[in-house]
Amino acid sequence: MTSRDHRLEELLPFIRSSRSFVLTTHVNPDGDGLGSELALAHWLADHGKEALIINTSPTPEMYRFLDPGGAIRTYDESRDAPALRAAEVIVVLDTNQPGRLDTMQEVVLRSPARKLCIDHHLDPEPFAEVYFLDEDATSTGELVYRLLHALSAEGISPRVAEALYCAIMTDTGSFRYPRTDPEIFRIAARLIERGADPVETYTRVYEQWSSGRMKLLGEMLAGLTLESGGRLAHVTVTREMLRRTGTREEDTDTFTVYPMSIAGVVAGILFLETDDGIKISFRSRGDIPINALAREFGGNGHKNAAGARLAEMDLSRVKQRVLAAAERYLTTQEVQ
Fold this sequence. Notes:
Layout lengths: L7 H10 L2 E6 L5 H16 L3 E6 L17 E2 L2 H10 L2 E5 L11 H6 L3 E6 L10 E4 L6 H12 L6 H14 L10 H12 L4 H9 L4 H12 L2 E3 L4 E6 L1 H7 L21 E8 L2 E8 L5 H7 L3 E2 L3 E6 L4 H21 L1
Parallel strand pairs: 1-2, 1-4, 2-3, 4-5, 5-6, 8-9
Antiparallel strand pairs: 7-8, 9-10, 10-12, 11-12
């Protein structure tokens, strides 16, 4: 066992001795959060335990193939708050900040349930009894794999393998982001041996777009702008663009890939206008700490991938402030 697994030993007794679990992840869940909680829920059910998945946000269309029976609940206070209060254990996955549970935050924090947190992001907040954290991991899915392998090396069923493969695939950008290493390929190979289908998973996530989503991408790219001598690229999706194409916020998933696909670009920003403010997605290459830029606007994330949400509604002002701040990070890198 490596030093980064030192909290894993503390987590194992909780899982083995407990019978009733509620699993949840962050608002607007992605493939890593959903795949991680589905994998853990399936494993718990396979081992005779009760496991509910309750999320603040609905499951995006592209990930519903992971949950064909519709087991994931979208939080309804009158129905689900009692379950959260009665649970023996609440497991929070793919976020270590309870604020990202949105409308579920208060009832989760007040529940007498023992709380576990499994995550690979920076800057954890103190709310759980036991944490299994590793900011060097590729994904929360990788951590759930380590947990389940430690609990029962032979206990990973095909549906568990499918969910974990999706979690890891999406959070590694199909195995091309910086933390991708030989070990994650070995884990992926084991999941394929256990029943994960890499072709079907990739197809369902990345090659089943609606015509509206494709039109939205076209509109966004038409407004792509380069700054800082071509080193910074930014794109914008407005509420009007979403309305016109019949799309939603979830349809912008993976859109940050496109600004970063331009030769010479080392930082990319997506501005998304929502009904309650502005969502900003940041990406960078190399030594540019884009998470530090995100923190300036109340967000956080990894060194090269981060995000923030602002309650402000003036898109032009937000863009002006963020782009001015981004320029400093590019200038700092040039000096170094």
